[in-house]
Write a structure and sequence with these properties.
The protein is of the alpha+beta class and 203 residues long. It has two domains: 42 residues, no CATH class; 141 residues, no CATH class. Helix content is 41%, strand content 12%. It has a five-stranded mixed beta sheet with strand order 1-4-3-2-5, covered by helices on one side. Helix 3 crosses helix 6.
Length: 203
């Protein structure tokens, strides 16, 4: 993994080299590598891979409380059509597209329509994320961070809001997670949960 051999790029740089080399045997590493390839976290082609180093992304400092919905002039039912369209689109993207294509689509849409100089309206994002959370009960799909974050990203884009889609990992034990964040505020998860992860990519 390009970049990982450089201690300055390693989030576990404080671990002694002897401990690191003894941590994983070849017998353990091969199945793990295959699993990461199947999840498209690792790539079999170096020309399409990124350096294995943490992304310089601000850690969150707060999260909206979805149990306390922000006031809205409209009933959640009024948002049902864009909600179901956004969820159906996320399902189709994850089912029929390579993950790389989905990432490229989200990045390109944000680049075309988002305004990087204008801060995202957190109050409006809070209101819409709360509506999404309430309507989510009616969409027949298991709760998974990848689907739910992509569906929320699609839903907010319908209202011209373009927050960040953040991907992070933990090392021991290995775990990958993603969430939606605007500035230092998490829109669809708890602060305690996402703070355990080191960001490796954001859109």
């Amino acid at each position: 993994m390009h970049g990982w051999e450089d201690g300055a790029c390693d989030p576990l740089a404080t671990v002694a080299q002897g401990e690191r080399s003894a941590a994983t045997s070849r017998d353990d590493a091969i199945p793990l590598a295959h699993k990461l390839l199947s999840l498209e976290i690792l790539s079999g082609r170096s020309d399409s891979a990124k350096y294995a180093r943490p992304t310089a992304y601000p850690l969150p400092t707060d999260a909206i409380d979805l149990d306390l919905p922000a006031p809205s002039r409209r009933s959640p039912c009024a948002h049902a059509p864009p909600f179901f369209l956004s969820c159906a689109k996320a399902s189709r993207q994850l089912r029929s597209q390579a993950f790389e294509s989905t990432v490229a689509f989200v990045r390109a849409r944000k680049g075309r329509k988002g305004d990087s100089k204008k801060p995202l309206d957190i109050g409006r994002a809070h209101s819409l994320a709360s509506v999404f959370d309430r309507l989510r009960l009616f969409y027949p799909r298991s709760y998974l961070c990848l689907f739910d974050s992509l569906a929320l990203i699609n839903f907010l884009a319908h209202f011209n809001l373009y927050p960040d889609w953040v991907f992070g990992v933990t090392a021991e034990p290995f775990e990958a997670h993603c969430w939606v964040q605007a500035g230092g505020i998490v829109l669809n998860d708890t602060l305690a949960r996402v703070s355990a992860f080191t960001p490796i990519m954001y859109l």
